[in-house]
Protein 1
Amino acid sequence: MNHTILITGGAGFIGSHLTRLFVTKYPEYKIVILDDLTYAGNLENLKDIENNSNYTFIKGDITNAELIKKIFEEFKFTAVLHCAAESHVDRSISEPLAFVTTNVVGTVILLQAAKENWKHDTTNKLFYHISTDEVYGSLGAEGYFTEDTSYDPRSPYSASKASSDHFVRAFYHTYKLPVIISNCSNNYGPFHFPEKLIPLCINNILNEQPLPLYGKGENIRDWLFVEDHVKAIDVIFHKGKTGETYNIGGHNEWTNIAIIKELCRQMDIKMGKDKGTSEKLITFVKDRAGHDMRYAIDATKLKNELGWKPSLQFEEGLSKTIDWYLDNTEWLQHVTSGNYRKYYETQYHKR
Ligand code: NAD
Ligand code: DAU
């Protein structure tokens, strides 16, 4: 089965890994990226594949209904892999409306375009919505999120993602739009923007700056290497059942303090520093408002029905991630200085 796929948010963290996987693994597919290159979008994340003949980049906003209509007509997409979003919880606390606009309105605009363009024939069509475990709320010490867990979002970010998930399901039930949703736990790996815990701490260790841990550092997240996440999306895209939801997770729970201590331990060794040097940078700071205590995914459905499981142990994935940041200090320097935003002008000035 051949495809022309629209990947939204392809210049972001997960979107760029997903694009790389699909562009290289499926040369027969045509992959079109739509990304507005917000602060989180970085074309340097896609440099190694930008000359592939099955790859097209379009700079644009998913909330621009005219543009979406135009590109659906031009490319006749058979599938959408919808990654574009405002993704950072702390930003959602200070700017909730931006999350409603992109995550809710943007998703509905894409759904409308897919519905309109596929109304006469939904064969070999799929709207795949990439979502998060945060829609399920916060766990206590026990239990896991399954696909049947009730939604209980508690931050403006998770409320906007939950709302977009509801719209995706509404389009399935109301208009029979072929959709799939996956809800994944915390990702980590190369190209992760250094506002998120792990890359922020890597950058701060490199610059001997404090490592800010919210509250007591006891909140728990379930970490998955980003390449494992996109491999799961690949499996679900090709083998998943329309109308279904799949949870994706690493079965890999860590408190924030434990993860940062492990990061410090590995970085001291890799940077030839005395044991305990980086740990001294840990600083406890004011807690995040409404900070969810624990996330933990039960990914049994995905394993039993589609045969996916994570390939990497966490310590190994973290080591690969640190090595990538140590080998790509220029990427980090461009991101932290803001220079990455000039790349579009130099690379795409002709468009
Ligand atoms: P990211 O912030 O790194 O990237 C988001 C991308 O979307 C950027 O390239 C940005 O430029 C683009 N974008 C934002 N607003 C846009 C708009 N209006 N129009 C077009 N493009 C726009 O995010 P990420 O961490 O890669 O997350 C991708 C998706 O995966 C999101 O939907 C997020 O909710 C979900 N998710 C993320 C994680 C995680 O741990 N990072 C886990 C589970 C699910
Ligand atoms: O669970 C999936 C979600 O994971 C995704 O949907 C989000 O897009 C993604 O950003 C991530 O959300 P988190 O809020 O869990 O990630 P973050 O890296 O911001 O924070 C991880 C944990 O570390 C969380 O408990 C808050 C804490 N933290 C974070 C930062 C940035 C700190 O203690 N200090 C910090 O400076």
Protein 2
Amino acid sequence: MNSDLEDLYQQVILDHSKRPRNFGEIPVGAVHVHGDNPSCGDEIHLHVKFAADGAVEDIKFTGQGCAISQASASLMTMKIKGKPRVEAEELAHAFQTLITTDATDSPRALGDLRLMNGVRKFPQRVKCAMLAWRAFEQALAQTPESEAEVSTEPK
Ligand code: ZN
């Protein structure tokens, strides 16, 4: 990364970890997933409300953790809120590819999330960045109004 990009990365991560977007709960009609990253101490409670056609009608999160886990969750909710189910699944897949492989061409659709590809060099940080996305993938597999747990560590 050149230094301009690095500055931008720092700014985006700091901004989203200090003022996370879509922070809160969805009291009615949502799927709830509790995500846990014990290696860093990150925790997320993800709440996703799917429309009748499967689109991501609303998505919010609560929880606590390091700046990367919080920023990734905040950016994720901004990116997939309102998206059709297929598009949300594609974004989740693209993000995982971005931070876990050497792929150099990241889809433009990821927007600011592309800045997070710097974590790929640090396996512990990859877990932080992936936590919210693992929770979202679990939410996609849940029945309406159910609850589930995910962890970055094998049980
Ligand atoms: Zn973390």
